[in-house]
Amino acid sequence: MKYISTRGRAPELSFEEAMLSGLARDGGLYVPAEIPRMAEADIAALAGLSYEETAFRVMRPFVGDSFTDEAFSDIIARAYAGFGHAARAPLVQLAPGHFLLELFHGPTLAFKDFAMQLIGQLFEDALTRRGERVTIVGATSGDTGSAAIEAFRGLDAVDVFILFPHGRVSEVQRRQMTTPSEANVHALALNGNFDDCQARLKDMFNHFDFRDEVRLAGVNSINWARVLAQVVYYFSAAVSLGAPQRRVSFTVPTGNFGDVFAGYIAKRMGLPIDRLVVATNQNDILHRCLTSGAYEKDTVHASMSPSMDIQVSSNFERALFDAYDRDGNAISLLMEELREGGFKVSQGAMERLREHFDSGSASEEETLATIARAQTTMGQLICPHTACGVKVAEDLRDPATPMITLATAHPAKFPDAVEKASGLRPGLPQRMADLYERPERVTRVPNDLDALETHIREKIAS
Ligand SMILES: *Cc1c(COP(=O)(O)O)cnc(C)c1O
Questions:
Q1: Would you kindly state where each structural domain of the chain is located, as residue ranges?
Q2: Is 110 a pocket residue for ligand 1 (Cβ < 6 Å)?
Q3: Which class does domain 91-106+225-422 fall in?
Q4: Which residues are CB-contacts of 21 (< 8 A; sequence separation ≥ 6)?
Q5: What is residue 193's predicted lDDT score, i.e. its pLDDT?
Q6: Shortest CA distance to 422 belongs to which of 364, 363, 366, 382?
Q7: pTM of the full predicted structure?
Q8: What is the average per-residue pLDDT within 221-249?
Q9: Ligand 1 pocket test, candidate residues 102, 113, 143, 176, most atoms within 8 A of CB
């Protein structure tokens, strides 16, 4: 299996190389040269299997010979062993024909654990085999950073540094980053906002001497291995509800388009998915684009669902690549236009996108009202991201097809918004009930590239 760049001017790589390098050198994103199909009988045979066995069968064709069968299956077992639910991604029913896929039973209570836990184990195996070490640096407004730290803590071949804006993440999110005690984990509270964190991260990747010296690696949501890990739960959920005999639809609370793009890959592999519904909050660039064809940057407005507060949705480039018949030149031109503010998707490409995707957005008031209603009429406490999904799913769903809405975070991760909406303050699951008592370890850092690089050099040398 070979991987190609969406901009058509980077070398083809193996799964392992694409995973370790993250972004392609032409600025594009890696995608599989071909999407493998899964026969109907093979999908039917997933019924009743463990999540881990399903994961192995769904992901195996994408991995090629980067990992042996045995190594890959051990990696999957280790990745999901720390989840707090035997099903890993259980389904619960909200209403007739409407289901919630709970993706928050991992160590940091959000769906990003599905991908990050797997990537941690894949990196460790690949780097140990190659006798290499890397330095992972990430910027986070909350969920990604804690998921990365949980995934890489204590691994031998990796140091992990996470930059977060000082004073601007929730207490649960901060504690999840600052309480792990392993020496290879470094939480850095930057004097600045999230954009400053991202800008300094980008500066580091563009500073090639530093990048090579410390062997910088990235694990943000454009990494193909993260998308691949998320394909699995579309299969496990659809099969639980009767696929491949019965078609299902999904609604996905969306920010960077990674999660919903994984659903699209599942569909392309042969899973009978009817609609993929993109649900945004008030930052609705994707909803506007899927209705009008105009992809235009706007200012980001802080919302109750911060993990969906985005201006540009990085993984959308992968969907555009297919919609433009995999024409890398066309994508390069669109991305140049985006730098100037935006672009218009061609009519043909819009038709292809609409074959798969619907969209809707939820305002702050609608989000609160949906959290309250889910509690009183569906017996479920849901997080604000999930609420955007439930609201849009209710508006758009076809009663003849089961709808599965992805619950992307545990309500206890956003206790203030949930309490404001429902009057109930969600408690942390038992296994992390002592989070508020654990000692914190964090370094305050200035918003300055030189100082950051010096700090990272010193830490990895010690
Ligand atoms: C990251 C995140 C999202 C958005 O996922 P994308 O893959 O960026 O579209 C939604 N909800 C939660 C809780 C998240 O952490």
A1: 91-106+225-422
A2: yes
A3: alpha beta
A4: 13, 30, 217
A5: 86
A6: 382
A7: 0.95
A8: 97
A9: 143
